[in-house]
């Protein structure tokens, strides 16, 4: 289980609320459980009891840990990113029934299927999805309709914590047809397109914290987070600029650390609005990222802005900035 505290952040997608609204969200996250519901024995093999002496993991210990966090933290969501199926006799004997029971018993907030949820076709996945009470999310998946029943999946769900709306978008692996055995009617669409559409729809509903719950692979997740922009700069920038805390107004840089060598940044400048770049802002973004342990000092960090890429090199002696100079305007200014 991964525990992530997020002040105005999401699992993959940074979104921002009004600056005066402090909010802390605790995200508890599991994936690739592969039916290890009893955990392991002391020898590292699968345990087929509630828990085995000397072993580790399993649903009982997981529930104890989750209950402890929920008792201590006010704003918690519990998410699973798929591949509950396969792995032990729990699945061989009972298929998806145990997975549904465990997800319900731990009161998961949302679940996104992995490729192994389709190893036994759409029929077993349908049985599982109809049995669990947990929302099954898959924005880029289209399944054949269920006669007289509710849809098996939905693109997203919205939950509230202390009056704050939190959107959770599910994305399944586009390569599932070659990794598993889904029915031929199942369509696994582009994850990026689905995420962009979901973010736009959620933002239109006033949702400003969005979590992408995916089973795409870590590298794909990092690339996707860097490409899909969920920050409404035109709306949020002026809120910072004209906030009473800053009587002389202020510039704001919205940044996302994509990986240890890449930062994505958008700039709102007082009196001008969103601009293509900001050299000092790029340097400050890198220094802040290094100070928070997200990037390394002494290496080139690429800062991607609307106008192109800037490279910042931060050492104990200096901060240097390298980038192209481009002509963006020719004209006459009268004053």
Overall outline: elongated
Please tell me the overall pLDDT: 88
Provide a count of the helices: 9
Helix content: 25-40%
Spans of at least 5 consecutive residues with low confidence = 2-20
SS class: alpha/beta
Tell me the span between the first and last alpha carbons. 61 Å
Q: What is the chain-wise order of helices and strands?
A: EEHEHHEHEEEHEHEHHEEEHEEE
- Please count the beta strands (DSSP E, at least 2 residues each): 15
Strand content: 15-25%
Q: What Rg is obtained from the alpha carbons, in whole angstroms?
A: 23 Å
Q: How would a textbook summarize the main sheet?
A: 6 strands, mixed
Summarize the structure.
The chain is α/β, with parallel strands linked by helices and 335 residues long. The protein contains 9 helices and 15 strands.
Keywords:
335 residues; alpha/beta
Sequence-ordered SSE layout with sheet pairings:
Elements: E1 2-7, E2 24-30, H1 59-72, E3 76-80, H2 89-94, H3 97-105, E4 110-111, H4 121-131, E5 141-142, E6 156-161, E7 164-171, H5 176-179, E8 187-188, H6 191-204, E9 209-214, H7 218-227, H8 233-241, E10 252-259, E11 262-269, E12 273-275, H9 279-291, E13 300-305, E14 308-314, E15 319-323
Parallel strand pairs: 2-3, 3-4, 7-9, 11-13
Antiparallel strand pairs: 1-2, 5-8, 6-7, 10-11, 11-12, 13-14, 14-15
Helix pairs in contact: 3-4
């Amino acid at each position: 289980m991964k525990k992530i505290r997020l002040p105005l952040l999401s699992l993959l997608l940074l979104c921002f609320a009004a600056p005066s609204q402090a909010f802390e969200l605790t995200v508890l996250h599991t994936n690739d459980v592969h039916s290890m519901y009893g955990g392991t024995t002391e020898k590292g093999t699968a345990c087929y009891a509630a828990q085995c002496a000397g072993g580790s993991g399993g649903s009982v210990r997981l529930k104890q840990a989750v209950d402890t966090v929920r008792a201590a933290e006010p704003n918690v969501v519990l998410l699973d990113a798929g591949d509950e199926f396969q792995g032990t006799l729990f699945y061989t004997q009972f298929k998806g029934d145990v997975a549904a029971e465990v997800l319900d018993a731990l009161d998961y907030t949302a679940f996104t299927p992995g490729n192994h949820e389709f190893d036994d076709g759409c029929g077993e996945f349908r049985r599982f999805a109809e049995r669990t009470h947990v929302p099954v999310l898959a924005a880029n998946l289209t399944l054949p309709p269920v006669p007289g029943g509710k849809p098996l999946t939905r693109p997203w769900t919205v939950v509230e914590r202390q009056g704050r709306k939190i959107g959770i978008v599910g994305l399944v692996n586009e390569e599932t047809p070659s990794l598993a055995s889904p029915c031929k009617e199942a369509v696994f669409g582009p994850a990026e397109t689905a995420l962009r559409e979901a973010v736009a729809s959620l933002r239109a509903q006033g949702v400003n914290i969005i979590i992408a719950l995916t089973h795409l692979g870590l590298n794909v997740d990092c690339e996707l987070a860097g490409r899909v922009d969920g920050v409404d700069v035109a709306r949020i920038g002026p809120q910072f600029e004209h906030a009473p805390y800053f009587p002389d107004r202020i510039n704001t840089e919205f940044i996302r650390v994509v990986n240890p060598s890449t930062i994505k940044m958008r700039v709102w400048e007082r009196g001008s609005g969103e601009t293509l770049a900001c050299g000092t802002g790029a340097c400050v973004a890198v220094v802040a990222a290094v100070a928070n342990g997200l990037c390394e000092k002494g290496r080139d960090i690429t800062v991607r802005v609307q106008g192109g890429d800037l490279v910042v090199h931060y050492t104990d002696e200096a901060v240097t900035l390298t980038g192209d100079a481009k002509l963006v305007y020719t004209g006459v200014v009268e004053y």
